[in-house]
Amino acid sequence: MSGSIADLFSGDALQQLTSNKQIGEQSYVLRGYALPWVERLLPELRRVLAQSPFRKMVTPGGFTMSAALSSCGQLGWSTDRTGYRYTPLDPDSQQPWPALPDVLRQLAVTAAAEAGFGHFEPDACLINRYVPGAKMSLHQDKNERSYASPVVSVSLGLPAVFLFGGHQRNDNTQKISLFHGDVVVWGGVDRLRFHGVLPIKEGVHPQMGAQRINLTFRKAG
Ligand SMILES: O=C(O)CCC(=O)C(=O)O
């Protein structure tokens, strides 16, 4: 048997194996960065979700988001008809959000450092669950008290096309394929760039099933 790794993998799979990508002055896709963490991360995620299960939320405009959401950390993000906000309590249970598991915190901190953001101290982890067809419209992350810290975004499960735009809603967007284990970090001059996710395509991921789970870590308070 002969041949290189490039003979075994092609197209997107080869790209995931080989190439980190700079997508902005202070923004990076770290290909497969979370893969070595997944085995330790999933049981913690299950514990978090047993305490604060996924739920559908409504935007101030009255639209039900197609992604289901939960959170862990000192602060959790939610939306309803009265606005977007971070709160220390899960609005469904009126109990504190589950603590941020150490393995998740470490993953976020080391990924941020890899992208040039040392001393990242996330206090909020938003957990988005996308089933096929679910999407995230273009938006800016602006509910945090300061924009000094980056956003660290971990993709698990089904692939997605991540839209990374500019500072105006109408700016052109880069379309970036994200796979299980990829991490995107954006901050600094790029912190307020518009971003979103195209509708997830039908499929079944061998480890995660028919879903994509995205974890976004932020310093919100
Ligand atoms: O699911 C993603 O990759 C992005 C999630 C996102 O845009 C957000 O939580 O603000």
UniProtKB/TrEMBL annotation:
Documented EC number(s): 1.14.11.33
Superkingdom per UniProt: Bacteria
Keywords: Oxidoreductase
Keyword Oxidoreductase: yes
Identification of the protein by name: DNA oxidative demethylase AlkB
